[in-house]
Amino acid sequence: MTTEESWSFMKTIEAGYILGPLFIVYLLVVLLKLKKQSRNYSMFQYITLISLGIYILSVVALTTFPIEINLGMYKNQSPWYSRINPIPILTIDMATFILNIIMLVPFGVYQWLVVKQNKLSWELVAVRSFLFSLTIEVLQLLLYITLNSGRSVDINDLIANTLGGILGYYAIRFVSKNTYFKDLIDQFKVSLKSLIITN
C-alpha cells in the first residue's frame, strides 16, 4: 500500500448535518434579540426574519451541498484554476443562467423588507447581490481546493445572481405602488440593522 493510499479518504456531507444546527442557532439568536427589544414584533415580522434565515441557508444548500470530501488517491486531478470560468456571456448556459437569476430574486425582495427605504437603491441591491454571490463562488472554490469537492466557479453565475437581486427589488417596488399591496407588504417589514445592533 502506498502512502497516498494509506491516508486516502472519501466522504459525502449532506446539507442537513451542518445547516440544520446553523438554522437552530440563527433562530435562537433572532428570538433572543427580539426578546431584548422593548417593542413588540408582529407575526408578519417574525415570518420575515425566520423565512430570511431559511432562504439564505437554502441557497447555501443548493450551491455548496452535498460536500464531497475526496483526499489522497480519490482527489481530483485537475488544478483548481481549471474550475474557474472567467469568460462572461460567450460561455453561458441559458437554463443555468435563468435558474441563477430566479434564485436571487428573493434576495432583492428581502432587502426591501429589512432595509429602510431611504437607505435603499437598486445600486445598493446590486452590490449586495453581487457580494452574496461572490461569497458563494469563493466558498465553492475553497471547498474544491481544500476538500476536492467538485464545484466550479463561473462569472456568469455572478452576473445572473446580481440581475436576480435587482429584479426582485424592482418587482416588490412595483407591487408596493398599489395601496393594498403596500399596506400588506409593510406589515412584513422589519429593520435588520436595529435588530443586529441591539445590545
Automatic annotation (TrEMBL):
Lineage, uppermost ranks: Bacteria, Bacillati, Bacillota, Bacilli, Bacillales
Protein name: VanZ-like domain-containing protein
Domain VanZ-like: 54-174
Organism of derivation: Tetzosporium hominis
Keywords, ordered alphabetically: Membrane, Transmembrane, Transmembrane helix
Listed transmembrane segments: 15-34, 46-67, 87-113, 125-146, 158-175
